[in-house]
Write a structure and sequence with these properties.
Blueprint lengths: L1 E5 L3 H12 L3 E6 L5 H9 L4 E3 L4 H4 L4 E4 L8 H8 L4 E2 L1 H6 L5 E6 L4 H14 L4 E5 L5 H7 L4 E5 L2 H4 L9 E4 L14 H9 L10 E5 L3 H6 L8 E6 L8 E4 L2 E6 L2 E6 L8 H16 L4 H10 L8 E6 L2 E5 L6 H10 L4 E5 L12 H7 E7 L4 H7 L5 E5 L2 H11 L5 E4 L12 H18 L1
Parallel strand pairs: 1-2, 1-4, 2-3, 4-5, 6-8, 6-9, 7-8, 9-10, 10-11, 11-12, 16-20, 17-18, 17-20, 18-19
Antiparallel strand pairs: 12-13, 13-14, 15-16
GO molecular function, one term: UDP-N-acetylmuramoylalanine-D-glutamate ligase activity
Pfam family, one: MurD-like_N
Function: Cell wall formation. Catalyzes the addition of glutamate to the nucleotide precursor UDP-N-acetylmuramoyl-L-alanine (UMA).
């Protein structure tokens, strides 16, 4: 069987390594330049590859094409494959064929990385044989080669879900659906929501779909009456059907074989969105029969990924919080809502068609100063000019942090939560967050 892999990043190279391990004839093609670490892996496995071009003739000889998630269907090589009726699948779909492990698959516009890491942490600390993979940055296909795990916690983007057909999760989680990446979906929220709901495809009665019953787009798109699995809705707003809720600082879970309260008071996660994330992750753990005591102990030791409402320093009683991953309005709403102290807010970058009106009440209540960090700040200034008492702007993150320090008083929070993409001044949100942390470290060292 001939396999062509398009894209030679983590996903594509992992798929190629698995194909080679299974004795398939595999060829890798990348329109860009392949990173040295991946070239070395391909060469060491004697997998032929090309970079800087797609050789259509060779690719279209394949019996099946595995497409990296960043490649849209509209590109010429995919359109040609569709014309020739060559199946185009994702790395996740391919990997699922070669293991009997159970998959815990997590998606959502916001919060999926935090929830994936937390669910993995809860299961691992309880002693389950569990692996971590997917959009988190680790290839599921490559992990399946050794097949050492009974469970995989897999973060899935909508792009990965789009080319999954026969794959089935044992537990699927859908956190929320809000506008993002709509250019890939014809600017249709219905199509985007349908993509996210693929996480629950092919489920049967013994499989569980954990979903946010408060999310309007999920309620509109999900038809429970035709669903083949077992639903586990979670809610902070008192949804009638909810099986997972929050009571004070405890998560209440009520499923067929368990009903009880799990204390979450020692968790370091803050904000309303992290209450949703925690409910979902705790529900995963309870469905896999992890004890209350094990969950509570693991919640206390969990450390989230960088750049997600991450406290990075305190100087002169001013706290600095790095939320660089907040690249859309909803993520910033959760940050502003979750912080209970006065805020010096650093925001801006490449606007993604944002509607800032939903932030107006929180900004009026909590934000003392808005520091616009970007090349074009007009939309932010227009949205908050009559709401926030002080507005400044800069293209230097070092200046933004120094200005935040000079304007903050004891008890305030200097918050980087941009609501925008980072590409005007930085390589990506990680680069932006790292630069913020470095600027804060200089202040902390001088305190």
């Amino acid at each position: 069987m001939k396999i062509a892999v398009l894209g030679a990043g983590e996903s594509g190279v992992g798929a190629a390594m698995l194909a080679k391990a299974k004795g398939l004839n595999v060829f890798v093609s990348d329109m860009g330049q392949i990173k040295e670490q991946y070239k070395e892996k391909l060469a060491s496995a004697a997998i032929p590859f090309e970079e800087g071009a797609h050789t259509f003739e060779r690719i279209l000889e394949a019996d099946e094409i595995i497409k990296s998630p960043g490649i849209p269907d509209k590109v010429a090589i995919i359109q040609e494959a569709i014309k020739k009726e060559i199946p185009v699948i994702s790395e996740i779909e391919f990997a699922g064929r070669y293991t009997n492990a159970k998959f815990i698959c997590i998606t959502g516009t916001n919060g999926k990385t935090t929830t994936t890491l937390l669910a993995y942490h809860l299961l691992k600390e309880a002693g389950l044989k569990v692996g971590l993979a997917g959009n988190i940055g680790e290839s599921l296909a490559e992990k399946v080669i050794d097949n050492r795990y009974e469970y995989y916690v897999v973060e899935l983007s909508s792009f990965q879900l789009d080319n999954m057909y026969q794959f089935k999760a044992h537990i699927a989680v859908l956190l929320n659906v809000t506008p993002d990446h709509l250019d890939r979906y014809g600017y249709s929220m219905d199509k985007y929501a349908a993509s996210k709901l693929r996480v629950a495809q092919n489920m049967m009665g013994s499989d569980f779909f954990i979903y946010n019953a408060d999310d309007e787009n999920i309620k509109k798109a999900f038809h429970s009456e035709t669903f083949g699995g077992t639903t586990v809705p979670f809610s902070l707003q008192g949804a009638k059907a909810a099986k997972v809720t929050l009571e004070d600082k405890s998560v209440k879970v009520a499923v067929k074989f368990y009903e009880g309260l799990i204390n979450t008071s020692k968790s370091s996660l803050i904000g309303k969105h992290n209450q949703y994330n925690t409910m979902a992750a705790v529900a995963v753990a309870k469905l896999l029969e992890v004890s209350d005591e094990q969950i509570e102990k693991a919640l206390e030791t969990f450390k989230n990924a960088d750049h997600r409402l991450q406290e990075v320093g305190v100087a002169k009683e001013v706290t600095y919080v790095n939320d660089s991953k907040a690249t859309n309005v909803e993520a910033v709403w959760y940050a502003l809502e979750g912080i209970k102290k006065p805020i010096i807010w650093i925001a801006g970058g490449v606007d993604k068609g944002n509607d800032y009106s939903t932030l107006a009440d929180l900004a009026r209540e909590k934000v003392k100063v808005l520091i616009c960090l970007g090349k074009d700040n007009d939309k932010l200034k227009e949205a908050f000019g009559r709401i926030v008492p002080v507005i400044a702007e800069t293209t230097s993150i070092n200046y933004a942090v120094r200005l935040g320090r000079s304007l903050a008083e004891a008890g305030d929070v200097v918050l980087l939560s941009p609501a925008c993409a980072s590409f005007d001044l930085f390589n990506n949100y990680e680069h932006r967050g790292q630069r913020f942390k470095e600027a804060v470290e200089r202040i902390v060292l001088k305190k």
